[in-house]
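User: Modeling request: complex.
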Amino acid sequence: MRKRQRSEAAIVGIGELKPVRYTEGATTLSLIAESVRLAAIDAGISKDEIDGLLVGPQVGETPQHVPATVSEYLGLSPRMSNVVDLGGATGAGMLWRAQAYIDAGMCETVVCVLANINEKGKTPRSPNRNPIREFDVPFGASGANTSYALLKKRHMEEYGSTQEQFALIAHWARKNAQLNPDAVFYRQPASVEDVLNSPLIVDPLHLFEIVMPVGGGTAVIVSSKKEIINRHKHSPVYILGAGEKVTHRAVSQAPSLEKAPLSFAIPHALEQAGLHVEDMNLLSLYDCYTSVVAQTIENARLCEPGQFGEWMKHHSFGFDGDYPLNTHGGQLGFGQADLAGGMSHIIEAVRQLRHEANSRQIKDAKYALVTGNGATLSEAAALVLGGEA
Amino acid sequence: MNLIEKLRHLDVPGPTITSVTKPFWEGVASGEFLIQKCGECDKNVFYPRTHCPHCWSNRLEWTPASGKARLKTYSVVHHPGHPGWQDVAPYPLGIIELEEGPSMLTQLLVDSPEDLKMGDALHVKFVEVNEIWRPFFERDSSRD
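Assistant: Request completed. Predicted assembly structure:
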């Protein structure tokens, strides 16, 4: 591992749809188009300046040929296009790839986009015909809740972590969401007691510890064109370091239930950036479940393994706290538009590093750690972002 | 209706059996719990596949497993991801470590899941669910 070469590429545009509990009259492609349009406006560029496209997999509408389909819909002709398929780590995985494709000379301005509809009464059933479908689902383990409950229980048994300690994470997410009018849980704070009193979905996970599925979309534009970066009315944000790791798919096949792939990805990203976790002004940590934040805090070596609860007791996690954490409310407070949920952590980091986070702006924010997590603590990506503001 | 009867009548998905995994499910249906052993590195492998994930040998051989396992972690499903399981909810699921080494996910047939502990001794118990026999596990009090 070596320190990352400073790339010319910067994050120059962000677009984010306000999440809605249920979408009506929308398609995934229409939400992708609107997200990209917003990001281009934010960047101050025209569509003809985009020559790279990174998209995610789409279970329902477009299982194959996603880049071509999205290009056609938007009238784009990218010189580089691809699918990034890392579950909740897709957004973070896209960003460093966009930079790498630019640095390889394949393109100059890449749009990374993820969006998803969520229609009432329609729960898409996975079309998987692979081992997890054959060896987990037939035992009653359908959906992510069961897998994350198994992981949370293991943490509780191994380290003696308590329900109250996990509930505090959901409480902070809801609390921070009160400063974000776009969050699905805006005006719906939750105390630790509220979290503990919410129904057990899969013991030991309560309802309020689990993200709310929503419809929405996000797009981020990365460019190395000096002229675009200088034209840009916002200050650029740079990708200073990245790390990634994939270890398994099904939780039953995890090589270790303690050593999650983020424990590899985060140190890699920090080392590339030449920074320490204590240098970060924002922790933008992927939070599909409370327990994932708990483990990520430990994987980032903010405390010893198993000690997140004790560590959290001594710190404060609002924008004005000593460890600002998911200041947009995280996905637990903001909502999870499928794969786009992971991108919300990047969007918030960019806002903070541009010093455009309004009422929740972290003072003098310069560096942010962003994490992504996919499948069952299987796919991990981490980014260190740096601003100029 | 007792639990075994209830399970038999559930309308839930079965395994998506492939030509590679067919011997495993045929074994389960005839009361045999088969795993694979690598002909090169001697490690045991589960789930069934064509290549050893430890050494990439393609000489995996079927071998009967003891059916003994230890509990690594568990959860209790109150709201199943697939609605077909609702009739038996709440039900416990576990990740178990087979005596031969590999891990698997299974449903646990225990009366009081709140008493489960990591490391508990378990034994395979074949259960018919929606016309497919499946290897669930139950407590093995002889090995506590």
